[in-house]
C-alpha cells in the first residue's frame, strides 16, 4: 500500500517495522531518540529527539498515518497529540487505554472488575505493614512491582532479586519514597509465552505465538535482559500449550479490549501483547504491553504475508479484516556486547560480512564514519525462517559466524523449548 508513514522509535523492533512498511510500498518518515542506522537508511526524512518531545512532530503533518513502536511515548499520550493536534491518524493506543501497560495496578483492577480470567493473586501496598500482610497471605514467594513503567527493570522476583523479608522490605521502602503505592503479586512458576494481536478496538486478530528468552545466558541462567532472542513454530502455537490454553489467552485479550472501551469510553487501536504464564494447566496474565514485543515483532513481521500498511490502515479506520502468516519456523537471536547487561563493553566496531543472507536489524548501535559500533545495550537482532526450528537455527548459525565483534549471544534459542 503506497502511503506515507511516520514511525516513532529506534530499536530493532522499529527497524523491522520500518523494513516492512517500505517492503509493502510505504514511504517512511521517522522520529528517533537516537539514530538507528538501519531506519535512517530506509527513511525519506528523519528527526532525532526525545520521543516525548511531541512538538518535533509538527513537520510530519503530511503523512497518511503514524505507527508508534515503544510504550513510553504511548503512555505519555503521543497518539492523543498526533490525532488531536496534528490530525494524523495513529496505529497505537491513546493514553487512557495505554494505561493497561503504564499502570500495573490499573491492569489488575481491570481484570478483576470485568471478570476477565487469568488474574494472579495480588495486593496493593501503601506501607511496610501492607507488605507484611501480603507476605502473611502469600508467603515470601512474591513479586514486587512498581506501578508505572520501568523499562522492564522495576520488577523484583523472590529467588532472583531477594530471598528474605529484609530484602523485600528494603525494596518496598525504596518504592515508597518514589510513589505512595506498589504491587505485590504471588510468584507464579511456569513457562512464559507472548501472544500479540492486532486490534481495532472491537476485533482482534492473533499473530503466531512466540516464546522469548529473557535471561542472559544459555539454559535460562544469568541476569534478566531486555530479551536475548525468540522463536515461533510453523503451526503458530508452542510445544507446551494446548489448544484450550491458546483459546483462553485469546479470550483474555478480547475481553480486555472490550473492558477498556467500557471503562474509558475509548477504543484501543493498535497492537496488544499479552505476556502469559502457564502453571498447573492454568493461564495467568503476567502483564499487558501496548505495543509489539521486542524481539517478538521480528518473528511475526517476518511471517506476515498480508500488507502491513493495509493492516495499520484498517486498525486506524476500525475496519480490521484479516491477516495471514506463513507456516514457517522462526528463530531470532540478539548479538549483544560482551559483559551485557552488567558490564557491557562499549564503542567496539562490529563487522558484518556482506554475504550475510539472514535479515539483520540494528538495536542500539551507532555509526562512526563507515563503522557500526556497540553501545552498552543490545546490538543486532538476526532472524531466520525454516521448515522447522532446526533448519532456521542452522541458517542463523551460518549468519552469526559472519559477524565479528566483541559480542556474545545465546546458543539455545529455539533449542530449549
Ligand atoms: P513484567 O515487567 O510485569 O513483565 O515482569 C518482568 C518479569 O518478571 C516477567 O517477564 C516475569 O518473568 C516476571 N514476573 C512478573 N510477574 C510475575 C509473577 N506474578 N510471577 C512470576 N514471575 C513474574
Ligand atoms: N519481549 C519482551 C518485551 O517486549 O517486553
Task: Summarize the model shown.
By secondary structure, the protein is an alpha+beta fold. It folds into 4 domains: 4-93, 3-Layer(aba) Sandwich (Rossmann fold), CATH 3.40.50; 121-186, Dna Ligase, domain 1; 189-316, ATP-grasp fold, B domain (D-amino Acid Aminotransferase, Chain A, domain 1); 329-408, Phosphoribosylglycinamide synthetase, C-terminal domain (Glycinamide Ribonucleotide Synthetase, Chain A, domain 4).
Question: Cα-atom Rg, whole angstroms?
Answer: 21 Å
CATH architecture of the largest domain: 2-Layer Sandwich
- CATH fold type of the largest domain: D-amino Acid Aminotransferase, Chain A, domain 1
How would the global form be characterised? Answer: globular
Q: Summarize model confidence as the mean pLDDT.
A: 97
Features:
alpha+beta; 12 helices; Rossmann fold; 5-stranded parallel sheet; binds glycine; 4 domains; 417 residues; D-amino Acid Aminotransferase, Chain A, domain 1; binds adenosine monophosphate; Dna Ligase, domain 1
Characterization of the model:
The protein is α+β, with helices and mostly antiparallel strands and 417 residues long. The protein has 4 domains: 4-93, Rossmann fold (3-Layer(aba) Sandwich); 121-186, 2-Layer Sandwich (Dna Ligase, domain 1), CATH 3.30.1490; 189-316, 2-Layer Sandwich (D-amino Acid Aminotransferase, Chain A, domain 1); 329-408, Phosphoribosylglycinamide synthetase, C-terminal domain (Glycinamide Ribonucleotide Synthetase, Chain A, domain 4). It has helices spanning 12-23, 37-42, 71-75, 78-85, 95-102, 104-113, 128-138, 165-178, 243-264, 296-303, 308-316, 389-400; strands at 4-8, 27-32, 45-48, 65-68, 90-91, 122-125, 142-146, 156-157, 182-186, 191-199, 204-206, 211-217, 221-232, 270-279, 282-289, 329-337, 349-352, 359-362, 365-368, 371-374, 380-386, 403-404, 407-408. A hairpin with a 2-residue loop joins strand 19 (365-368) and strand 20. The chain is globular. The mean pLDDT is 97. The structure holds adenosine monophosphate and glycine. Adenosine monophosphate (AMP) is lined by residues 120, 143, 152, 155, 157, 185, 187-188, 192, 214, 275, 286-287.
